[in-house]
Amino acid sequence: MERIVVGVDGSESSQYALEWAAAQARLTGAKVAVVTAAPDGMLLAPVEALAWVPPADLEAEATYLQRSIVDRADVGGIDLERIVALGQPWKVLDEHAAMADLLVVGSHGLGALAGSLLGSLSHQAVSHATYPVVVVPRASRPPSRIVVGVDGSETSVRAAAWAGHLAEVNDATLELVMVQQWTAAPPLGAPYTMVPIPVPDPEELRRAGRVQLEHLVSGLSLDRLDVERTIVEGPVARRLLERAADANLLVVGSRGMGGFKGLLFGSVSHRVLHHAPCPVAVVH
After folding, report:
1. What span, in angstroms and rounded, lies between the C-alpha atoms of 92 and 71?
2. How many other C-beta atoms lie within 10 A of the C-beta of residue 211?
3. Partner of 208 at 20 to 30 A CA spacing, among 35, 50, 89, 225?
């Protein structure tokens, strides 16, 4: 990891994001770019006071907010770059993160600058980024236990590989979690039918899941790690959150294909962001 971009808007949440990124930078030697966007010509404080503001004033306000976070955060011992740019927050962040290895944002922001709510940005990043994104909801220690959801899709394999690399860097344990949903249901919008829908055999799914997990682990060169394999049944997001209850990082793929029916990963990344007890990494 050579370059980490952090979105900062003056909020406490963005301070947590910066400190999480700084901890990783100390371990990897990565450079951290702190990016604050100043939307061109608008300031919301409060919403009903919407008015045009000269770009120079907006840039000065963004610089002040960024400085307030950097001065409070624990960023000692890292190579830090400060960037303030005019433009829509997501576009500004994406432009800089596209040249980085990782984007880190808080789960919600102060919203002092129009459109700079990191809550909105975190969802935009999860939905549209082409690089790994870490969303930090609160003050967090460097990962010592990492949980990653896998479902057999190419994206989840990438997530597992990325999590494995981070586990090595942080000397953390790694748990690969496969969630199986056994209840069969007709496709959304399918016509009503009295024909019974076959339900997959649970034991067959378990056996297939174990084989797939072992194949995944053997293909990722995780020999140097303490890797736990877990297969559980039920709603995917809920089970992942349960497994991450005592973890420092939850890693998911941005979307899955589902190696079998019942293993669909889908939009889990969006759901876990709302309730995760720890930072969430979404790998695209």
Report:
1. 22
2. 10
3. 225
Across 135-149, average pLDDT: 94
Taking the C-alpha atoms of residue 248 and residue 10, their distance in angstroms, rounded to an integer, is 24
Q: How far apart (Å, rounded) are the C-alpha atoms in residues 103 and 86?
A: 19
| pLDDT, tens digit (0-9, with 9 covering 90-100), for 207-259 | 888 888 888 888 888 878 889 999 999 999 999 999 999 999 999 988 764 44
Determine how many CB atoms are found less than 10 A away from the CB of residue 47. 8
The amino acid that residue 84 corresponds to is V
Q: CA-to-CA distance for 119 and 5, rounded, in angstroms?
A: 17
Alpha helical stretches, state H, the chain: 12-28, 55-72, 89-97, 118-128, 154-170, 202-219, 236-243, 268-275
Residue 95 scores a pLDDT above 70: yes
The arithmetic mean of pLDDT across residues 272-281, rounded, is 91
Query: What mean pLDDT is predicted for residues 137-149?
Result: 94
Instruction: Say what the pTM is.
Output: 0.84
Structural domains present in the chain:
3-136 (3.40.50.620), 145-283 (3.40.50.620)
Residues 6+ apart with CB under 8 A from 233: 179, 180, 181, 182, 202, 239
